[in-house]
Amino acid sequence: MKKTVTAIMVMSLLSISAYGYSKEERVKDMQAMETAMAKIQKGILSNSNKMVVDGVDDLKKSSANVEVAPESFMDYSAVYAKQQSKNILKYADKVKANIEENHKHGANSNYTKILDQCISCHNKIRKWH
Q: Measured between alpha carbons, how far is residue 5 from residues 1, 8, 16, 18 in Å?
């Protein structure tokens, strides 16, 4: 009996800590991601490799924090958001590599792929049409 009660308490604490990411924190992280994307774009347009690299670093830092709590066991939003976040990190690394190799067109192409991931996630999670 004690083991069952302890197990239930542990599971409860784990579920609370797993979804301890508030809406305010998510908004803050999304705003940080938007600012980082703007920095990358401005760096590409103004031919500033440092600005692009700084933007990529900011984007990776903020996108690594983003979580979406599922509304039910049948809601795959959290899984989808996590996959989009992984894709954003992958394309961010490609932007950085393109810039370091002085391939501006490649950096711009991968920037667009990041933006596509953002829009795709917002369409699914926020139900944008």
A: 6, 5, 17, 20
Say if CB 56 and CB 95 are below 8 A apart: yes
Residue 77 DSSP class: H
Could you give the domains of the chain? 22-125 (1.20.120)
3-state secondary structure (DSSP) of residue 76: coil
Q: How far apart, in whole angstroms, are the C-alpha atoms of residue 56 and residue 62?
A: 10
Instruction: Note whether 55 and 93 are within 8 A (CB).
Output: no
Concatenated DSSP letters of 23-75: HHHHHHHHHHHHHHHHHHHHHHHTT-HHHHHHHHHHHHHHHTT-----SSTT-
pTM: 0.76
Q: What pLDDT shows up at residue 5?
A: 46
